Structure formats: structure tokens, C-alpha cells
Amino acid sequence: MPPKNPLLQVGPLTAQREGRYLFRKVSFLLYPGDFIHLKGPSGSGKTTLLRQIVGLEPSQAQRFLEGQPYPPARLSLFRSRCLYLAAEAPVLEGDILKNLRFPFEFKANRKKSLKNPEALLKELGLTLPLSTPARSLSTGERQRLALARALLFEPQVILADEPFSALDPKSFRKAFSLLYDFAQKGQRAVVCVSHHDLPQKTKTLILQDGTLKEAP
Amino acid sequence: MKTIVLSPLDLLVASGFILLAGGLSVAMRLGVEKRLLVAAARTVIQLTLLGFLLEGIFKLANPFLVLLLLFFMTFMAGREAAARTRKRYLTMMWDTTLAMGVSAFLVGAVVTQVVVGVKPWYDPQYVIPLLGMILGNALNGVSLALDAFLDYVTTRREELELFLAYGAEAREALASPFRAAVRRGLIPIINAMSVAGVVSLPGMMTGQILAGAPPLQAVAYQILVMFMLAGAYALGAVGVVWLCGRKILGRDLRLKLEILR
């Protein structure tokens, strides 16, 4: 089988905290179809690594998606293709629909549109009407809403930071399979930071002692 | 025009009110007596110095001296505005000074040159008090707007980063904090215009009437001043949040809260 071209290539990534390197000159590679479980002890820098990839933390990294360079001037476009899903699962004031629709109002996303949110929400077990105020949702519901937003946004890469931490086993299974299936369709990949054991993955990476290693 | 001249003895009697306020502070253990006395002393010293300075400048009527004083006033206003916010960043004073300077000089130029038609253009009797009034008010608008803006970006960081993560550009991500901040900055002047003449007799108008001007002329000046101040508030507030927005969320589209102290 000929080697595939990488989907995402970001590096070098270096982060320091209080004069100590969290990680140093890490380069991050994703191939189409990857579903990567990113592990590592608390405080090892998993969140910082994901945030650096999308430029929410400072770095000198070069970014390539499908071989195309994304210099800082095209960062919004990069982020619209490589999405960082924050662990806090932030929701906006306003209803569920507003929370799903706001990304499509940005200039970088004007070619995209929101398709059939009800079906996906139902699959995730969120059967509330779209007019429900999002701030009234529980932590677990917010997390599913944030995941739904990411999936409906249809980026090529989702960098999910603890997307399942507040879910019960049943919701976890549904949410996980939706995220896993997402990575399998076309030119896509998912990185998932999780302390859960994940039922399926194509690779496990461990961030520990300043390096990123593939688990055997 | 009839005016009653105030003597130093009159002011001595008036200072009794400060002693009364200070005495209340001591009796009620408010702990503000020291700050009250210092503020009162600053009022006396600063205004006396200004009085002498104005007498001198009015006599000399030199355009460069007038401009120099205007720049000095702008700088002091910028410094004061920067000192009033709860959160700060290193070069904030330059942003407040610039926003204030641009707003005050623009509005001031229109008012003195076009509306009032001051001749010569630098006539200190008009230019200095008008610009002083603009600066004093823009100062309020600038510091309130900046404070609201910095408060928004720190307390709602997750929301802003959510926008950024979904590909928002700086303008798109900062739209809500901009709006909230400018709205906050405009509240004082909107309130002042709403109650002018009903609840409060505006200070400048009061002064003109005390100095013997016909009430309608004083009213005309007061309306001019209110509109001028509204313009200065708006320009100052918009200017300062725009400048601050560039620092807090630069070209690299990253929320740089680490610059705040």
C-alpha cells in the first residue's frame, strides 16, 4: 500500500511553563481516517498542544492542511477547517439554535451552511426544542451540544479536548460513535484527549516528559 | 453685566464645608477624611496654578503656547483615564491619550473653528475652556468604555475563544465586547442630556448665568456643549476600544490576556 499524504502537519511546537519545557519541538501529523487518542498525565500539556495547533496559544509552528500552507494571515480559514473543541464546552446566551448557527455567520465560513441539526441532536439524545435557552442545559447536555456544534460545522479535523468527561455511559457510547464515524468519512481526522478508555482508535499518542510518543 | 467678585475670605468660609465633610468622616469612621483633605488641597493648588497660567496665556495670546497647553492637558487626561480602569496593560496610557487626543481635537476643531468661529483660531479664552471641557468628559467615556471592554474580554474569555476557534476574525470576535464597551462609555452623556435643565442645571450654564450672561445665550452654549461632548464621548470610546482591541487580539488572532495586570 503506498503511504498516504498527511492530512495535517503542524510543528515545531514548544511550550514552557515556569521555565520548564512541557514539550519541545514536537511535530504533529495526522493522516486521513485517523482517530487518535491523546493521553498523558494531568498537566503534561495536552490542552496547550491542541491550543497551539490552532494558534490560541503562542507558537512558531508552521501549519499545513492537505499540503497547503496556512500562514498566520490565513489562520481563520485554518481554524474553520481544523476545529478545536474546548473542554469547557462553552455555550452562548440565547437558544440552542443560535449556539449551533453562529459559526456560519463568520466570513471564513460563508461557504458552509447548517444542515439538519435536529437529527444529530436526537442521535446525541438531546431532544429539547431548538428554542431552549442553552444556558439552562446541564453540564452533560452542554457537552453534547458543543459536540453537535462541532460535527454540524463539518471541519476536516476535530481536536476534541475531553469531549466526554461529563457524559453517562449511554450518552458516551452514542457521542463516541458519532465522533469516531466522523473521522472515517473522506479527508478527515479526529484527535481526542480523554482519560476514558476509548473503545476504538487508530492510534494512541502519549504526551509525557516533554515528548509525544506512540503507544505500543 | 453684573458680577459679584469673590474674595479669599469668601473661599475661607466655603472651606468650612470641607471641614464639615471631614468631621463627618471622622465621626462616622468612614476613613475618607485624609483623602478628602488631599483632594480639596489639590483642587485649590491645581486651580490656582491654572488661574495664573490662564492669565498669563490670555495676555500673551501666543498660538504655540496655547497648543502646548492643549497637548499637556490631553496627556494628563490620558494618564488619568488609564489610572481609572481595574485592569491595565503596559502601553495603555498611550492608547487612552491617543483616543482622547484624536476625539478632543477633532470635536474641538469643529466647535471652535466652524460653529463658534473663534478669531484668531487660537483665542485662548474660547479654545482652552472648551477643549478642557471636552477632555474632562471624553476622559470619562474613555475610561468607562475601556474598563467595560477589559472586563468583558477577561470574564467572557471562553466565549471569545469559541468564536476564534470557529474561524472568527478579530472584528467578528470582538463585535460584542465593542458594543458593550461603547454603550457603557456613552451612558453618562446620555443621562446628562436626558436630565439637562430638568433635574440638573448644567455646570457651564450655571457659570455663565452667575457671570451675568443672558439665560438664552447660556442655554445656546449649553446645547452646543452637550452635543460636542456627546461627539467626544462617542469618538473617545470607539477609539480607545479599537486601539485596545488591536493589542488584546492582534493579527495572530489570539486573545492575549497575559498582557493584563
From TrEMBL, chain A:
Keywords: ATP-binding, Nucleotide-binding. GO terms for molecular function: ATP binding; ATP hydrolysis activity. Residues 8-215 form the ABC transporter domain. Transmembrane segments: none annotated. Signal peptide: none annotated. The keyword Protein biosynthesis does not apply. This is ATP-binding cassette domain-containing protein. It comes from Thermodesulfatator atlanticus. The lineage of its organism: Bacteria, Pseudomonadati, Thermodesulfobacteriota, Thermodesulfobacteria, Thermodesulfobacteriales.
UniProtKB/TrEMBL annotation, chain B:
It is found in: Membrane. Pfam families: UPF0014. The chain crosses the membrane at residues 6-24, 36-54, 60-78, 98-116, 128-150, 189-213, 219-244. GO terms for cellular component: plasma membrane. InterPro entries: UPF0014_fam. It is a multi-pass membrane protein. Keywords: Membrane, Transmembrane, Transmembrane helix. Its main location: membrane. Coiled coil: none annotated. Belongs to the UPF0014 family. This is Iron export ABC transporter permease subunit FetB. It comes from Thermodesulfatator atlanticus. The gene is fetB.
